[in-house]
Amino acid sequence: MGRLFDGSEPRYVLYRMLLGTHAHNVCYRYDEPGRHGKFNTLPTCRKNSSFRAYNSARDRWDIDFVGYCYNQWPNHLGGHVMSYAERDIPIYYTELGESDPILFCHGAGGNSTIWWQQFAHFSRQYHCIAMDHRGFGRSSCSSEYFDVSKFGEDALAVLDAAKVERAHIVCQSMGGWTGVQLALKHPERVRSLTLGDTIGGFDIPSGVSEIGPVIERLKEVGGSNVALGAAFRQNQHSDAHLYREISAFNVAIRSLDLYGQMFHPDVLVPLERATNLNAPVLVIAGNEDEFWPPEVLKELSQHIPNARIVELESGHSPYYEVPEVFNETLQAFLETI
């Protein structure tokens, strides 16, 4: 086609992750059906508008780029289109890049695809892995199999399936439950732990006692109106829309008792166990986070040995709202290890 694309180029990464993770939900129409790779206009998606949102947010999709991905899929989409770790249910994961492994653990508003901006940045130097937690994305399950206390062992199974001995664990919000469970039960598998806007499932009173009203507001106004900062929602309409579209693939979780399990006394980790986290820990706080404001995460970091805290100008999701700053902050931390 006269044009090649870097496998870590952001548009390629997003397209790959959307197809690889949600291919069964994607249906296209073309102006000229059957003429693969020869598009007169941009293909659009019938079942979701993620691609349209990204088009308006990033000028235009390149016609050659879309044709390249379509014609070469699945070969040029990395060979990891449908990878699963075997547990009591299959746990989906995707990977890109080589060298030092990073496992990304998403929050309640995301799935593996939500990390596309981190995959684009870090896959040049790292082996990036992202999982769908049980009940999310392609790790769909019924209420019988939904158990937040199994998140850590699910992550361990993903590392085993990806043949990774030790990894940097990067967590967002709910994903902090996963990272902390893994780090406490299997410290030999965790090279470092990043807790992004999360209490990590620790039973810290300032982080647990005030969460009820936030969850009620989330149910009332919608997850993205709490997970994304007000300034981002107002100024980045298309990117906020893309966030909602990626989140919309989490169909199973809507009927599951996520928050009831997350904050159940049997799932929460006693705060004194934070001293057992031996790996280097980075805590990232958004200065406008409605879930866990910086003062809560600063208090938590005081209980964790070898922890450092960084405050970013963001809402609850700095990895998505200010990805360049988040990536630079995370990379600086990883380079010290």
Can you characterise this structure?
- This protein is α/β, with parallel strands linked by helices and 337 residues long.
- It has 2 domains: 10-77, no CATH class; 83-334, 3-Layer(aba) Sandwich (Rossmann fold).
- Helix content is 37%, strand content 15%.
- The chain is built from 15 helices and 10 strands.
- It has an 8-stranded mixed beta sheet, with helices on both faces. Strands 1-2 form a two-stranded antiparallel ribbon.
- Strand 9, helix 13 (294-301) and strand 10 form a beta-alpha-beta unit.
- Helix 2 (50-57) runs antiparallel to helix 11 (237-247).
- The relative contact order is 0.13.
- Mean pLDDT is 81; it is low at 1-7 and 21-81.
CATH class (first level) name of the largest domain: Alpha Beta
By secondary-structure content and strand pairing, the structural class works out as alpha/beta
Portion of residues in beta strands equals 15-25%
Distance N to C terminus: 42 Å
By CATH, the topology of the largest domain is: Rossmann fold
The domain tally reads 2
Helix content: 25-40%
Please report the total strand number as a whole number. Answer: 10
Taken from the alpha-carbon principal axes, the silhouette is globular
Number of helices: 15
CATH architecture of the largest domain: 3-Layer(aba) Sandwich
Largest sheet: 8 strands, mixed
* CATH level-4 homologous superfamily of the largest domain: Alpha/Beta hydrolase fold, catalytic domain
Poorly predicted segments? 1-7, 21-81
- As laid out across the biggest beta sheet, the strand order is 3-4-6-5-7-8-9-10
Radius of gyration equals 19 Å
Average pLDDT figure = 81
Order of helices and strands: HEEHHEEEHEHEHEHHHHHHEHEHH
